[in-house]
Amino acid sequence: MTYRLPEFYLPYPARLNPHMERARAHTKQWACAMDMIDEVVWTEAGFDGMDYGLMCAYTHPDCPAEELDLVTDWYVWVFYFDDHFLETFKRTRDIAGGQAYLDRLEAFMADEPGLEPQNPCEKGLADLWARTVPHRSEGWRERFVEVTRDLMQESMWELFHIDTGQVSNPIEYIEERRKVGGAPWSACLVEHVSGAELPTRIARTRPVRVLMETFSDAVHLRNDLFSYEREVQREGELSNCVLVCERFFGCDTGRAVEITNDLLTSRLHQFENTVLTELPQLFADHALLPHEQAAVLAYVKGLQDWQAGGHEWHMRSNRYTKGESSGGLTVHHLTGPGGLRNLAAVPFRQVGPLECRVVLPYPCGESPHRQAALAAELEWTHRMGMCDNVVWDERKIAGHDFALASSGMDPDASEAELILSAHWLTWGTYGDDYYPLIFGQARDLAGAKAQNARFAQFMPLDLVQTVVPVNALERGLADLWVRTAEPFGPAERAEFRRYVEAMTDSWIWELANHIQHRVPDPIDYLEMRRKTFGADMTIGLARLTPGKNLPPELYRARPIWSMTNAAMDFMAMANDVVSYQKEIQFEGELHNAVLVMETFFGVGTQEALDIVHALMESRVRQFGHVETNDLPVWLDDIAAGEAVRERVAGYVQELKDWMAGVLRWHLETGRYRAYAQWKPGPSGLGTASTRIANLIGGQR
Question: Rounded mean pLDDT of 60-70?
Fold first, then answer.
């Protein structure tokens, strides 16, 4: 069939910089000087047709001539890097050569690289670094180094997939595409070009992070739609969302294009929602001065300009499929995924229990200290005041049995460690129930934020408690903090406090969505679910526990964080399946993966459940694939010694224990037993993918 581009959601007008012709002339001269027009990677005619001067004139319509020249040179470099890596390493499957090339290229991200450039990419990066980075603040420089390194090093992820013939699952794809696709790098350049850097103290907050990520995802998804024919059909590329959707959903290319475009539209709606609902609160919470607020808004405008201009360039460049229409605003854009559909959930509707068909290939262990932990859990819950007959009563407390979860999650723990683990699970779950009941029903976002602000006082880095707790949440946290943080140094205590605060801040995010009566965008939901589920905090605690933790730099390695995120997503979605009736029918909840998929695809509960099951199973398969294939290669590449290999193997086993233990708890605890049906058996992706293909085929 003929490949057809969809109708794009284009909420921002594209404008053209008046200095375009100067940028075109300058950047061609620069590319020649850097030896990039080499008749191998780029011919002169090919370079002219790609028209990077037009691209940057569209994406940066208001910047001065000198800055437009500079930013256009940056984009010439990044596209040359991408095409050169394709020709030199992807086509030849030269993994070792590609890694050595990237490692050497990193040396030119320095004021004095100490190496002589040997190829156009090295020559161009050395020149651009000297012209750009020394003029920026330390905070911006740190972020720019991070995203530039990601952009280069994650090219190996694409090469690994081509070498093994593997197509990512949708969650893995979005995460990795964000790194390798370069849009976070573009967002940093937006700051540079606008001359208004983000204030350092808010640069890594959730609202700013979501602005960058929604911008990035929309840029990448748009590029995937325009470049599908070139990348997939001509170049053999496997990293393209249209192809990912074809494989995962078992649908044809036309439907995969629609799904990708709907996801793009939803991400743009999430961008807009963040600007309108989260930025004003961010300004107030951090007391941003007028010039700081202006810098953030200039950044927002720069991202909007890039989004609009990037689309216009894609329509004109010879790199991509040409569209018949530039798009605009359709009824589907406004009422479909991300739009009014996300505001139309019916609360407390009658739903039935869901069948949880999950097969996990890891056995669940059992701690000999489980009964001791259960007795300690019940005593501690009452002593902290959680049996208040408002949030929890005796029946609920007796049925929860968090010691069962801890017993499976950490079967080798000592009695004291198991008790502490069960107490953290108790505290986090109590808080998760407390916020919607106490603050949600009253729509008291200010009260919830005030409670969050008080939490920091019960996590002092010197362990000296100076504030008297006034409720069960505060009493529990004060008690747990001293027992947990005592073995840590000040830096580790500060890090763990950040993990706890990330979880409690996610409760505010949920409340804010309820006040808007808004079902979350699927990507925002899955990424925030790791925090609302407490997974980030649980993993964070494991990372800091002496004797079990890995060296900090290893947690940033692709195989480690890939397996960690896969495990977290599996468990969070398992929770959503088991708790669906409890949350949707009896609590009026909006944060559930099954509901999120119902909303995004416009399908019924069973169809949405099939999608969630397929995502869960794909995350387990990814976990196993990384363990079997990627992890050994990475350990060999870093020449890991026996001690490091043992620590890594121990960490992987902890993740398996965690998945198995938490799954067992969900299926046996009294908290959910009345709301779900457990039907073990080989559902696998075979059954799920067939159902998905049927439901996706004719839906819009």
Answer: 96
Which residues partner with 678 through β-bridges? 356
Q: Supply the DSSP string of 248-310, one letter for each residue.
A: HHT--HHHHHHHHHHHHHHHHHHHHHIIIIIHHHHHHHTT--HHHHHHHHHHHHHHHHHHHHH
| CA-closest candidate to residue 78, choices 55, 45, 104, 58 | 55
CA-to-CA distance for 686 and 698, rounded, in angstroms?
A: 20
Is the four-CA dihedral 84, 232, 230, 174 of positive or negative sign? negative
Q: Cα angle vertex 313, ends 307, 314, to 5°?
A: 90
Two structure tokens written together for 615: 């995502």
Tell me: the pLDDT tens digits for 160-213? 777 677 888 999 999 888 888 889 999 999 999 988 899 999 999 999 999 999
Q: What was the pLDDT predicted at 659?
A: 95
User: Rounded to whole angstroms, how far apart are CA atoms 491 and 552?
Assistant: 12
- Provide the 10 A C-beta neighbour count for residue 322: 11
pLDDT at 39: 84
CA distances, 569 to each of 183, 271, 413, 593 (Å): 24, 23, 24, 10
- Residue 88 φ/ψ region, left for φ over 0, alpha for ψ in the -120 to 50 degree band, beta for the rest: alpha
Question: Rounded CA gap, 188 and 407, in Å?
Answer: 45
Q: What angle do CA 141, 142, 146 make, to 5 degrees?
A: 110
CA distance 314 to 268: 18
**CA-wise closest residue to 139 among 92, 187, 202, 88:** 202
In sequence order, which residues have a C-beta less than 8 Å from that of residue 533 and are 6 or more positions away? 568, 571, 572, 575
Residues 69 and 22: their CA atoms lie apart, in Å, by: 8
Residue 304 vs residues 15, 60, 215, 268, 297: alpha-carbon distances, Å: 11, 10, 8, 10, 11
Give the distance from CA 567 to its chain's centroid.
14
Contact 386, 392 (CB under 8 A): yes
Q: How far is CA 643 from CA 96, 550, 640, 649, in A?
A: 25, 10, 8, 10
Give the CA count within 13 Å in the CB-facing half-sphere of 66: 4
Residue indicated by tokens 């929770």: 575
Instruction: Quick: pLDDT tens for 619-663.
Output: 999 999 999 999 998 999 889 999 999 999 999 999 999 999 999
**Residue spans of alpha helices (H) in 60-205:** 65-85, 95-106, 120-132, 138-153, 155-164, 170-180, 183-194
Tens digits of per-residue pLDDT, 353-412? 888 887 789 999 999 999 999 999 999 999 999 999 999 999 999 899 999 999 999 999
Q: Which residues contact 241 (CB under 8 A, 6 or more apart)?
A: 170, 173, 174, 177, 220, 221, 224, 225, 260, 263
Q: Residues near 344 by Cβ (< 8 Å), separated by ≥ 6?
A: none
- pLDDT of 696 > 70? The answer is no
* Measured distance CA(216)–CA(186) in Å, rounded: 8
Confidence tier at 699 by pLDDT (50, 70, 90): very low
Instruction: Decide if 432 contacts 399 (C-beta within 8 A).
Output: no
Does residue 536 surpass a pLDDT of 80?
Answer: yes
Tell me: pLDDT of 562 over 50. Answer: yes
C-beta atoms surrounding 70 within 10 Å = 22
Residue 128 has pLDDT above 80, yes or no: yes
**How many CA atoms, within 13 angstroms, populate the side-chain half-sphere of residue 118?**
7
Taking alpha carbons only, the member of 319, 272, 261, 317 closest to residue 59 is: 317
- What residue type is assigned to position 664 of the chain? R
Asked if residues 199 and 295 have their Cβ atoms less than 8 Å apart, the reply is yes
Reported as a pLDDT band with limits 50, 70 and 90, residue 234 is confident
Q: What is the DSSP letter of 356?
A: E
Tell me what pLDDT residue 140 has: 93
Indicate the pTM of the whole model.
0.92
